[in-house]
Backbone:
């Protein structure tokens, strides 16, 4: 296998709310249709599609978990400094996200926080010294 690209397909209940949330966090808007809203993330433009749940479920013959209860993946977003982690936490709260664990130091030089978007998808904003 030699894939040229990888992206995520997540389910949401409200495209307007999702578009507003990720736009407020500064994610790069990648387009929208009646079924999905899409964003590009990071230097390599990782694609994140957010589909209306019933639309994705109709085309993917597997059980899709409720992200408010369980997650198959937690996305990690890198931060350049501790201050950037703290600023991101403020932006997430302001945009309507839920802080799962506030900014904290752990291990040997690690600093992070975990949040959930309005549909329960989890993200870890992470900074490490060195």
Residues:
């Amino acid at each position: 296998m030699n894939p040229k690209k990888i992206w995520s397909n997540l389910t949401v209940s409200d495209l307007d709310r999702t578009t507003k949330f990720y736009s407020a966090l500064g994610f790069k808007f990648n387009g929208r249709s009646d079924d999905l809203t899409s964003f590009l993330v990071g230097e390599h433009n990782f694609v994140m599609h957010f589909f209306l749940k019933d639309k994705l479920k109709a085309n993917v013959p597997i059980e899709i978990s409720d992200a408010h209860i369980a997650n198959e993946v937690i996305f990690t977003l890198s931060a350049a400094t501790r201050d950037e982690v703290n600023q991101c936490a403020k932006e997430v709260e302001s945009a309507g996200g839920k802080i799962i664990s506030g900014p904290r130091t752990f291990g040997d030089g690690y600093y992070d926080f975990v949040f959930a978007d309005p549909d329960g998808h989890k993200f870890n904003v992470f900074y490490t010294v060195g």
About this structure: The first strand starts at residue 7 and ends at 12.
